[in-house]
């Protein structure tokens, strides 16, 4: 088992824990990662960072909706896995616990986690491109309504695309938790996208013990106190 005595001790004595998750934590639920190849890396010949961008929403909203409705269709059959359920249990185990996710799939909440900070929004919501009214589109594939019932403008998915701001207050809340925790886990993320990846750096600079869980090396690995090269669903339940 890859949990050292030092890490066991840190885990058992931690008062405040913060966890940042990325697409890798949902991989064992059947949700494709962004940079792992397949349709979620390149959609109809377009790299995901091209279609998941603010400029594409302006230029071709219908195409962007097709991509999001396709992914909502994939998600329909996905359930939380052992890693999501383990993190939901951790919430009641520590005096302080904050779960921050880059994922838009809602699987942490489905597993029972409360107050999840969703830095990049949620794919089961839409908002009006004019008045910003929110709509719950869970279970509606393709999404309906298509236009806002208040002002008649087009809806778009409530997710944060490249070049867009994060939801108001979300990063600030996550940053506070990262600054104040004594143990920080970075789970299933390539750690390439900012400002999310910066949370691990903030935690470390403020004295937290930094643990990475990822089968692959990332740009964050050299910075971590401990890297566990395993799938999240295998190792998290072992804590
Ligand atoms: C497993 C596993 C298993 C597999 N168990 N692990 C500073 C420096 C440089 C650039 C910037 C910067 N600050 C901001 C930027 C610009 C940009 C950015 O970061 N660019 C870099 C890529 C260069 N950031 C932004 O634009 C952000 N906004 C912003 O900064 O606003 C302020 C601002 C606005 C305007 C101008 C200037 C500033 C917004 C970022 C939004 C990201 N959105 C996306 C798409 C969401 C919509 C959609 O779903 O389509 O979010 S991008 C995509 O990447 C998605 C993810 O949340 C995000 C992170 O990906 P993640 O989760 O890490 O997934 P993968 O696939 O990359 O990795 C999976 C990992 O899992 C791998 O490592 C596997 O090994 C591992 N794994 N199986 C554990 N079983
Ligand atoms: Zn509206």
In a nutshell, what does this entry contain?
The protein is α/β, with parallel strands linked by helices and 239 residues long. 31% of the residues lie in helices and 20% in strands.
Task: Tag the structure with descriptive keywords.
239 residues, alpha/beta, Rossmann fold, SIR2/SIRT2 'Small Domain', 10 helices, binds ligand BJW, binds zinc ion
Protein described:
It is a single chain. The chain is of the alpha/beta class and 239 residues long. It folds into 2 domains: 5-31 and 79-120 and 166-238, Rossmann fold; 34-77 and 124-159, SIR2/SIRT2 'Small Domain'. Helix content is 31%, strand content 20%. The protein is built from 10 helices and 11 strands. The protein has helices at residues 5-13, 24-27, 48-51, 54-59, 61-75, 82-90, 107-110, 170-180, 198-205, 232-235; strands at residues 16-21, 42-43, 46-47, 96-101, 117-118, 121-128, 134-136, 155-159, 183-187, 209-213, 226-228. The protein has a 6-stranded parallel sheet, with helices on both faces. A 3-stranded antiparallel sheet has the order 7-6-8, with helices on one face. β9, α9 (198-205) and β10 form a beta-alpha-beta unit. The structure holds ligand BJW and zinc ion. Ligand BJW is lined by residues 22-25, 27-28, 33-36, 52, 102, 104, 120, 159-165, 188-190, 192-195, 213-216, 218, 231-233.
List the helices and strands and how they pair.
Elements (H helix, E strand, L loop, with lengths): L4 H9 L2 E6 L2 H4 L14 E2 L2 E2 H4 L2 H6 L1 H15 L6 H9 L5 E6 L5 H4 L6 E2 L2 E8 L5 E3 L18 E5 L10 H11 L2 E5 L10 H8 L3 E5 L12 E3 L3 H4 L4
Parallel strand pairs: 1-4, 1-9, 4-5, 9-10, 10-11
Antiparallel strand pairs: 2-3, 6-7, 6-8
Ligand BJW binds next to helix 2 and helix 10.
């Amino acid at each position: 088992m890859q949990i050292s005595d030092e890490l066991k001790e840190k885990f058992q004595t931690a008062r405040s824990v913060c966890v940042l998750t990325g697409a890798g934590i949902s991989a064992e639920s059947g949700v494709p990662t962004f940079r792992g190849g397949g349709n979620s890396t390149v959609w109809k010949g377009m790299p995901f960072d091209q279609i998941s961008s603010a400029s594409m929403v302006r230029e071709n909203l219908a195409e962007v909706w097709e991509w999001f409705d396709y992914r909502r269709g994939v998600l329909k059959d996905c359930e939380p896995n052992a890693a999501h359920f383990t993190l939901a249990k951790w919430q009641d185990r520590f005096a302080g616990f904050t779960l921050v996710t880059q994922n838009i799939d809602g699987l942490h909440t489905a597993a029972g986690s409360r107050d999840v900070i969703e830095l990049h929004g949620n794919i089961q919501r839409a908002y009006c491109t004019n008045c910003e009214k929110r709509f719950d589109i869970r279970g509606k594939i393709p999404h309906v309504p298509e236009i806002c019932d208040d002002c008649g403008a087009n809806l778009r998915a409530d997710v944060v695309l490249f070049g867009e701001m994060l939801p108001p207050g979300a990063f600030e809340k996550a940053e506070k938790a990262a600054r104040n925790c004594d143990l920080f886990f970075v789970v299933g993320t390539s750690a390439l996208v900012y400002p999310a990846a910066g949370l691990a750096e903030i935690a470390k600079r403020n004295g937290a013990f930094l643990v990475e869980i990822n089968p692959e090396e990332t740009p964050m690995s050299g910075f971590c106190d401990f890297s566990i090269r395993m799938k999240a669903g295998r190792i998290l339940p072992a804590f």
